Amino acid sequence: VKIKRSCNHLQPVIEVESYEAAVTDWELKRYFERI
After folding, report:
1. 3 touches 19 (CB < 8 A)
2. What is the predicted pLDDT for the residue at 21?
3. Which of 2, 6, 23, 28 supports an S-S bond with 15, CB 3.0-4.6 Å?
4. pLDDT of amino acid 25
5. Nearest to 6 by CA among 20, 25, 27
6. Taking the complete model, does pTM exceed 0.70, yes or no?
7. What is the three-state SS of the chain?
8. What residues contact residue 2 under an 8 Å CB cut-off, 6+ apart?
9. Contact 15, 8 (CB under 8 A)
């Protein structure tokens, strides 16, 4: 959903920043779950 929203390019900067933040949170969750 977030990827599709960022692909709309309606608000590129805000969407990309929020998308990168979401990816970072997701990667951190997966990283800590593996430990």
Report:
1. yes
2. 75
3. 6
4. 81
5. 20
6. no
7. CHHHHHHCCCCHHHHHHHHHHHHHHHHHHHHHHHC
8. 15, 18, 19, 22
9. yes
Signed CA dihedral, 16, 18, 19, 20: sign only: positive
Residue indicated by tokens 């929203």:
5
- Residue 9 token pair: 């390019």
Instruction: Scan for tokens 């309606």, then name that residue.
Output: 10
User: pLDDT tens per residue, the chain (35 residues)?
Assistant: 455 555 555 555 556 666 677 778 888 888 888 86
